[in-house]
């Protein structure tokens, strides 16, 4: 029989508690519940945002991306490409040339990112599902077409249905600039707009997809490539294929999975989540100070009970544990309500989208949420530590009371 816990439970549920102690205990319980609920909800929103970022970029990013560690581009040949294709787990290898160029349409112009891709590019990317106007094809009847982002379309007023006006790309040539003939210092190639995609503003406002051969001629890259995009075979682990490719290519090349291609953005989300957790932990600590006050008042109220227990042979440890259990009961019940309410709110948000993003241009209508077991575990640990911090002083004060003065 756990005597300290039984006495603590008796104190907690006793109807004869002084009114002010009962009120402070209830305030402490409510504070812990609200703080816990808010912490679970906010952490779940950050988890949802992290998954949303991955979902947005999954339609644009490959399973694996090969780039050079130093420099902008690298040479490729048949033997080099065959080594990559023969790597176990590699399903599709797409060649990519990406660089900035000036784009003109009618009397408007802007700098865009030209992304030249090989014909098998759409076998591994889901950009076809993001097409909002026209088609996602780059080749048709030996004719080249470009697929532009929606932001680029708005900026230049591009109309894919207009067959009489082409896009005009300009890129500096690898020659010395001639002030007498400035236009001769630029490569200039026309191409018809074939479609418009909408993925995410970062891409929509900057990217234009063109055939690889068109990019080779415009940018004068020859057999050089800025990256290779890999689709992993079904059932194969991406990390296993990544390690195999890295071993094949050596330290001069960088092989990145989807998360590593956006490591700074995902790291920023994780750092924000950590600071939010620390901030809400301090809020929980402040809310739990009411536990300290209620226990301190309870110790004063139960001086005679403590003296009687001590005279009957109760040790200082037993008396101390009574008040530690008392604080734990307040925190546990409050945390249980908080975790339950937080889970309920997250489920309602996930099912019905109660809180809207409030942005007309957002790709999702409501805040995304995702609950993780680790958030509940760390929240529980935080509450345990905070409860010990605020309960230990009143408990030790009770254990050190004089029997003769209070009996």
UniProtKB/TrEMBL annotation:
<feature type="transmembrane region" description="Helical">
    <location>
        <begin position="321"/>
        <end position="345"/>
    </location>
</feature>
<feature type="transmembrane region" description="Helical">
    <location>
        <begin position="20"/>
        <end position="46"/>
    </location>
</feature>
<dbReference type="GO" id="GO:0098797">
    <property type="term" value="C:plasma membrane protein complex"/>
</dbReference>
<protein>
    <submittedName>
        <fullName>ABC transporter permease</fullName>
    </submittedName>
</protein>
<keyword id="KW-1003">Cell membrane</keyword>
<comment type="similarity">
    <text>Belongs to the ABC-4 integral membrane protein family. LolC/E subfamily.</text>
</comment>
<feature type="transmembrane region" description="Helical">
    <location>
        <begin position="376"/>
        <end position="396"/>
    </location>
</feature>
<dbReference type="InterPro" id="IPR025857">
    <property type="entry name" value="MacB_PCD"/>
</dbReference>
<keyword id="KW-1133">Transmembrane helix</keyword>
<keyword id="KW-0812">Transmembrane</keyword>
<feature type="domain" description="MacB-like periplasmic core">
    <location>
        <begin position="27"/>
        <end position="247"/>
    </location>
</feature>
<feature type="domain" description="ABC3 transporter permease C-terminal">
    <location>
        <begin position="278"/>
        <end position="402"/>
    </location>
</feature>
<feature type="transmembrane region" description="Helical">
    <location>
        <begin position="274"/>
        <end position="300"/>
    </location>
</feature>
<dbReference type="GO" id="GO:0044874">
    <property type="term" value="P:lipoprotein localization to outer membrane"/>
</dbReference>
<dbReference type="Pfam" id="PF12704">
    <property type="entry name" value="MacB_PCD"/>
</dbReference>
<dbReference type="InterPro" id="IPR003838">
    <property type="entry name" value="ABC3_permease_C"/>
</dbReference>
<dbReference type="InterPro" id="IPR051447">
    <property type="entry name" value="Lipoprotein-release_system"/>
</dbReference>
<dbReference type="Pfam" id="PF02687">
    <property type="entry name" value="FtsX"/>
</dbReference>
<keyword id="KW-0472">Membrane</keyword>
